[in-house]
Amino acid sequence: MDFSATIASQLNAGTIVPEGIVIITLMIILIGDLIVGRSSKTWIPYAAIAGLLSSIVALCLTWDLPNPVGFLGAFNSDNLSIVFRGIIALSTVVTILMSVRYVEQTGTSLAEFIAIMLTATLGGMFLCGANELVMIFISLEMLSISSYLMTGYMKRDPRSNEAALKYLLIGASSSAIFLYGMSLLYGLSGGETTLDKIAVNITHLNGGQSLGIAVALVFIIAGIAFKISAVPFHQWTPDVYEGSPTPVVAFLSVGSKAAGFALAIRLLVTAFASVTQEWHLIFTALAILSMVLGNVVALAQTSMKRMLAYSSIGQAGFVMIGLTAGTDAGYSSMVFYLLIYLFMNLGAFTGVILFALRTGTDQISEYAGLYQKDPLLTLGLSLCLLSLGGIPPLAGFFGKIYLFWAGWQAELYGLVILALVTSVVSIYYYIRVVKMMVVKEPQEMSESVKNYPEIRWNLPGMRPLQVGLVLSVIATSLAGILSNPLFNLANESVTSTPILQSAIVNTRISQGEIPPNLPLQ
């Protein structure tokens, strides 16, 4: 009896109740589709959404767990991981809403698509709390392989096949590089796999400074940079975004990116605490390259999906300012920005899907005069694009203000000024699309809009798309007005996470802001 009680306390399985709910939902969908067959498409999306919302409720109930570490230290359900897991689950809910009509119109199985997406969600959620090398790699591969499958899901579309092949080849290379970095960490730490034990062991290795640690750091950052599509590891992004099914692109741009940033925070802050200044310097360079290339190249794009691809590269550069700052405000602004980025980016992709379903194109020039035929789509897409550009009083404006202010307080003056300049550049290409939709005269209307079909929301799968668009627009608008409660939530998740607090104190000690013998409160 004592033995089983000890095992139960060490496993602490309550930490993964939200993931358990997603696993049960996944099994219900697979078994239900097997038993019912093609007619299951009428209830499967709603079952998946119900399961994900239940998982989000379970995440809320696990806030401030007294003992958040489970599975012998392999999983950490601290408040920071709860917020990131919530972002991933919420992004999947909105993505499922926008994918019902899209997948049905292609004639492929909706149940299989949702099952693969839930598997990717599961991998992302486990990755956000993974505290051990084996669990990190398995979760990362679970997310990556599911993403490859979704990217090539439209088997009859050669562009989808090409995107999947490019994503698979580059992704497999980045996984190999990342794994090599982890194997170096394992060896340098004397055979430890838990992150906090690795941190302790490599600190004693030449005072934490060695060639092996430097090589491991570079390899691991290369793997993370691929996940968040940071320059120069972004080559896959434009082609994959253009060729993949649009709902998959929407998920990759939010869910996969959030998981990548969660991994970056946990792995770098814990295992590489002894070389904090070095990885801050590397991420400063990645942020500069991503902001400049992402926003400048987006100016020349003629396809909405490619424009949003380069936009997402630029947005990753903005988020990296918070990571480079390494302060409470920096990490909080990162979490807050990813939370609002979820709604404004998924709202933009919902608009792109709606337009593509009705016209069969995603060329920016074809949006000319859209407001005369579809005011709701024009309004929703305009608000989401303006929010991405950082126009007040929308959510994106406050997200950028928090990020830039955190960078300024951390004395990253050059980085913040560059971010402001590239943010102004980004406003140009977002407003260009809005102008195309709103300002054009009737005689300048594009052929696609002239032949625009009658708007019918009662078609199968169209109502979820409408709900997704309206929800995203409301959230993007209200998150700007109610930014303070959301930022307080992000700030609480950071200040109540011990690994971040100890990392912030160590950074301040290394910079001479506080004496090293000061007792921690």
From TrEMBL:
<keyword id="KW-0793">Thylakoid</keyword>
<keyword id="KW-1133">Transmembrane helix</keyword>
<dbReference type="InterPro" id="IPR045693">
    <property type="entry name" value="Ndh2_N"/>
</dbReference>
<feature type="transmembrane region" description="Helical">
    <location>
        <begin position="208"/>
        <end position="228"/>
    </location>
</feature>
<feature type="domain" description="NAD(P)H-quinone oxidoreductase subunit 2 N-terminal">
    <location>
        <begin position="13"/>
        <end position="100"/>
    </location>
</feature>
<keyword id="KW-0812">Transmembrane</keyword>
<keyword id="KW-0874">Quinone</keyword>
<comment type="subunit">
    <text>NDH-1 can be composed of about 15 different subunits; different subcomplexes with different compositions have been identified which probably have different functions.</text>
</comment>
<feature type="domain" description="NADH:quinone oxidoreductase/Mrp antiporter transmembrane">
    <location>
        <begin position="130"/>
        <end position="425"/>
    </location>
</feature>
<keyword id="KW-0520">NAD</keyword>
<keyword id="KW-0618">Plastoquinone</keyword>
<feature type="transmembrane region" description="Helical">
    <location>
        <begin position="20"/>
        <end position="36"/>
    </location>
</feature>
<dbReference type="GO" id="GO:0016655">
    <property type="term" value="F:oxidoreductase activity, acting on NAD(P)H, quinone or similar compound as acceptor"/>
</dbReference>
<feature type="transmembrane region" description="Helical">
    <location>
        <begin position="338"/>
        <end position="357"/>
    </location>
</feature>
<keyword id="KW-0813">Transport</keyword>
<comment type="function">
    <text>NDH-1 shuttles electrons from an unknown electron donor, via FMN and iron-sulfur (Fe-S) centers, to quinones in the respiratory and/or the photosynthetic chain. The immediate electron acceptor for the enzyme in this species is believed to be plastoquinone. Couples the redox reaction to proton translocation, and thus conserves the redox energy in a proton gradient. Cyanobacterial NDH-1 also plays a role in inorganic carbon-concentration.</text>
</comment>
<comment type="function">
    <text>NDH-1 shuttles electrons from NAD(P)H, via FMN and iron-sulfur (Fe-S) centers, to quinones in the respiratory chain. The immediate electron acceptor for the enzyme in this species is believed to be plastoquinone. Couples the redox reaction to proton translocation (for every two electrons transferred, four hydrogen ions are translocated across the cytoplasmic membrane), and thus conserves the redox energy in a proton gradient.</text>
</comment>
<feature type="transmembrane region" description="Helical">
    <location>
        <begin position="43"/>
        <end position="62"/>
    </location>
</feature>
<feature type="transmembrane region" description="Helical">
    <location>
        <begin position="248"/>
        <end position="273"/>
    </location>
</feature>
<dbReference type="GO" id="GO:0031676">
    <property type="term" value="C:plasma membrane-derived thylakoid membrane"/>
</dbReference>
<feature type="transmembrane region" description="Helical">
    <location>
        <begin position="165"/>
        <end position="188"/>
    </location>
</feature>
<feature type="transmembrane region" description="Helical">
    <location>
        <begin position="377"/>
        <end position="406"/>
    </location>
</feature>
<feature type="transmembrane region" description="Helical">
    <location>
        <begin position="110"/>
        <end position="127"/>
    </location>
</feature>
<dbReference type="GO" id="GO:0012505">
    <property type="term" value="C:endomembrane system"/>
</dbReference>
<keyword id="KW-0472">Membrane</keyword>
<dbReference type="Pfam" id="PF19530">
    <property type="entry name" value="Ndh2_N"/>
</dbReference>
<feature type="transmembrane region" description="Helical">
    <location>
        <begin position="412"/>
        <end position="431"/>
    </location>
</feature>
<dbReference type="GO" id="GO:0008137">
    <property type="term" value="F:NADH dehydrogenase (ubiquinone) activity"/>
</dbReference>
<comment type="similarity">
    <text>Belongs to the complex I subunit 2 family.</text>
</comment>
<dbReference type="Pfam" id="PF00361">
    <property type="entry name" value="Proton_antipo_M"/>
</dbReference>
<dbReference type="GO" id="GO:0019684">
    <property type="term" value="P:photosynthesis, light reaction"/>
</dbReference>
<feature type="transmembrane region" description="Helical">
    <location>
        <begin position="82"/>
        <end position="103"/>
    </location>
</feature>
<dbReference type="InterPro" id="IPR001750">
    <property type="entry name" value="ND/Mrp_TM"/>
</dbReference>
<feature type="transmembrane region" description="Helical">
    <location>
        <begin position="279"/>
        <end position="300"/>
    </location>
</feature>
<dbReference type="GO" id="GO:0042773">
    <property type="term" value="P:ATP synthesis coupled electron transport"/>
</dbReference>
<keyword id="KW-0521">NADP</keyword>
<dbReference type="GO" id="GO:0048038">
    <property type="term" value="F:quinone binding"/>
</dbReference>
<keyword id="KW-1278">Translocase</keyword>
<protein>
    <recommendedName>
        <fullName>NAD(P)H-quinone oxidoreductase subunit 2</fullName>
        <ecNumber>7.1.1.-</ecNumber>
    </recommendedName>
</protein>
<feature type="transmembrane region" description="Helical">
    <location>
        <begin position="465"/>
        <end position="487"/>
    </location>
</feature>
<dbReference type="InterPro" id="IPR010096">
    <property type="entry name" value="NADH-Q_OxRdtase_suN/2"/>
</dbReference>
